[in-house]
Design goal:
3 helices; globular; about 10% helix; single chain; about 35% strand; mainly beta; eight-stranded antiparallel beta sheet; two-stranded antiparallel sheet
Length: about 170
């Protein structure tokens, strides 16, 4: 019996969300705050150069099968990305080192323009608490990288629920 694949954005821990090199006006939080795929006008934009390092922490352990990175401006869309998992803190130096990289992917302009699902090497994403997406370059060698929507597909692992929101029930 296979489990249903769902968007894992609903399991994001927004308090731990980070994005290195994002512009102050266009942040990662603006496109994932509703815990569903962004369809509004918000987007993430890189600041000093084309690189971005997005950290997507989950409030429970998940299995990841695919990701989506979508942009309205294909030339600014991510091209080469590296994925890393389960690192409490991560900087650009850490992802330049290939030993920590779980998978490296080259995206096409159509992938990012149409928001296509990019299948991952599922066996490497079986027990994920946080997904780190390092955008190394963009489609048109632009100075800035733009991402309008992100989605992550897979399934939560049963028995690893987030209990932080539960309240104690008083005896009557």
């Amino acid at each position: 019996m296979s489990e249903a694949e769902v968007s894992l954005l609903e399991f994001l821990d927004l308090s731990q969300l980070t994005c290195l090199n994002e512009s102050q006006e266009h942040t990662l939080k603006s496109i994932v705050a509703e815990k569903k795929r962004n369809t509004g006008s918000a987007y993430v934009l890189s600041d000093a150069d084309e690189q971005l390092l997005l950290t997507l922490p989950f409030n429970q352990t998940v299995k990841i099968r695919a990701i989506v990175l979508q942009t309205a401006n294909a030339a600014q869309g991510p091209r080469k990305i590296r994925l890393v998992t389960n690192r409490p803190s991560l900087g650009f130096d850490d992802v330049e080192d290939e030993k920590s990289v779980v998978q490296e992917i080259e995206l096409s302009e159509d992938d990012v323009r149409e928001g296509r699902k990019i299948p991952l090497r599922f066996v490497r994403f079986q027990s994920v608490n946080s997904l780190h997406i390092f955008v190394m370059s963009n489609q048109g060698d632009e100075d800035e990288t733009r991402i309008d929507a992100i989605d992550v597909f897979g399934m939560p692992l049963m028995g690893t629920r987030d209990v932080s929101g539960l309240k104690k029930v008083e005896d009557e």
